[in-house]
Fold each of these.
Amino acid sequence: MKVVQTPKISDKVNCLKTGDEVLLSGVIYTARDQAHKRLCQFIKNNKKLSFDLKGATIYYCGPTQTPKGKVIGSCGPTTSKRMDAFAPILLKSGLKAMIGKGGRSKEVVAAIKKYKAVYLLAPAGCGALLSKFVLKKELVVFEDLGPEAIYRLEVKDFPVIVGIDAKGRSVFRKF
């Protein structure tokens, strides 16, 4: 088990190998389809983002409503392929890690390799369990998107597996 602190994941990206089990601690940002589309529009139009993408980790997640007395509602991963059209632009802008579920396109794998990033897998169907690793949640931008807004999460020992490493090796490749 490897322990990785964000946003220092940039320093560890080359040490992470496909299949490694990782406990992630620090700051990650949630973002889904519509938030990705807007982020890319901001980048294309040279608009300032509400958070720094350099070295950042984005979790493909839209948390459910927060129950009374909890930090966050259920926060499981969503299918990553829906973000494939946007991932290369965000990686070029400095994104270092993405967390989701499922395989990625050849273009995303090439961008991960080119920009020395990593794709991490969170256990699907475990949103309620994953919420226990979130210490703090705060809205960053796109409040009108509701649960699909971008949230800044502080996590401790958030369990993930390296799905695609910085060399482009993937757990989804057929052997």
Note: The longest strand covers residues 150-164.
Amino acid sequence: MQRQRIMVIGDLMLDEYIWGKVSRISPEAPVPVVHVTRENSYPGGAANVARNLAEFGITTSMFGLAGRDFNGHKLVKLLTAARIDAQGILLSGLFHTIVKTRIIARNQQVVRVDREERNTLKAPELRRLASILDKRIPQASAVVIEDYGKGLITQELVDHVLRLAQLHKVIVTVDPNPANPLVWRGATLIKPNRQEAFAVLGVPYQEEHEALEKAGEALLEKWQVPYLLITLGEDGMLLFHPPNRPYHSPTRAREVYDVSGAGDTAIAFLTAALAAGISAEEATEIANHAAGIVVGKLGTATVAEEELIRSYAENG
């Protein structure tokens, strides 16, 4: 896995964490007063997928759009410091970088403040990004398309990526967004969560396993891809790979503190494993172990090599 070269294409964000202590309620309103003790910033959104890959020792490059503003430059610096190639990030003066600020006290999130606007690629920016991808995709082991629904991922961009990937036999995995219905024919694997799976089909959410299996089969037919992985939160993951029966991997999480970023970790490790030639079933297990580790940490977290080995030793 660590010998792979993986590209991540998707909506970029900056994750800010403000940590503090609460000792009283505000006299101005019935809300806690948080005394700030420290602050951290991390690459967020699709950039968190790249961070997960790079922190594990995988050669990683990031492609997307950020604002030509303080937060955009900060995001690029954070990615570069994390040994992520950020040359594929376009900075636009017409766009404000998306920032999500979480205030945490007593190991619990008090509030999240989002500063964002949806922005699609303009024709000149799409041409610039396509030109970069033309040169980089042939050198990659795999491509992750991470759609947070903020406007970067369009059918035109997806078609360009999938066409290049098929030409050069490069694996493409997708984390889709139900609010942005696209044609994914030509991708290798798509990874929705359970709620997204039903939302894409436009049917009511259901907990029953039989309904989930039917949804998985319907999505395989709709998307025309060889692999589908539905993440199930505390119930683990369910892999569809016809003609095989669906493969269920139970949760590997021992403690759950924060589920933010778990999906990013899952698709990062799943993609790296598939790129390394590991079977889809074992890749699912690896992704499940990795996701189980990060939900036991506060904030958007990553997984170290020794942590993954320890999880296998402890959980099988």
Note: The chain has one domain: 5-11+45-96+118-315.
Amino acid sequence: MNMNCNRNALRFISAMAVLSFASLFVPAQTSSQNAAQPAAVAPAEKLTPYTAPDKSATVGVPPGWKVTKGENAVIQMSGPQGEAISLGNGVFVRNGAFQAGQQGSGLISMSMPYQATLNQKYVMLWQQAAAVSGQPAPQVTFISATPIPLAKNIAECAIYLGTRTTAQGTSKFESRFCSLPLDSGSIFKLFWMNADIPAALATQERATAEAVLASYKLAPATVKTLFQPLTPIVFVPSGGGGGMPSTPMADHSAECMDLSVIREIPDWRLPSYCH
């Protein structure tokens, strides 16, 4: 996606969900097929380790795939048959009316209503990406949307499985997508990871896509810089008086995002301040 991103923009990374592409990538069976016999899934290919030049993140790359971007925790790669995996994407968004194709301003990539549902924000993100590239709006169909349990003052996140149809064809996707809280400047962040596999390749590519996404790792120092809002959040005591930067809260948010979204630590193992 050609979208304006700050070097310190929040990046979004995660491994695939447990259910992952299992139900999404197996083609529907015809009446002549035995429903008790699931389609065979090809094993994952051996991955070659890749480290971003700035040491911010690492990932495994399948044979024949090419890394097209690797910096500031963002790693994007493409496969030889139209496959695409993108990790660590983040944009600043202004709270306001959405219009596909709108031009960004400074570090702000677009506007959209903060009160829109997460599903709506996800669709608007892809509509904007298509519009700025001169493409018609994609048709996005959700197969499932599974919330990731986090406190609302940290982020609203979900795992999306579905299909996306563009001028180039139809692909199966899995995305982990988050919307962060509105800051004092009426700006919020969207961040996501996404895997797109052409529909005809879904079964044979599923295990490899999962292996790539599960191999993604962040450098420890990178995590602390990913969740900074564009406008600093100031904590004001309930009794009034001067405020101070809410560093502990920012640190807690980064930790919770890292544990829940990136590392996929089970909900019951998360610190209480993550809920």
Note: Residues 247-262 form the longest helix (16 residues).
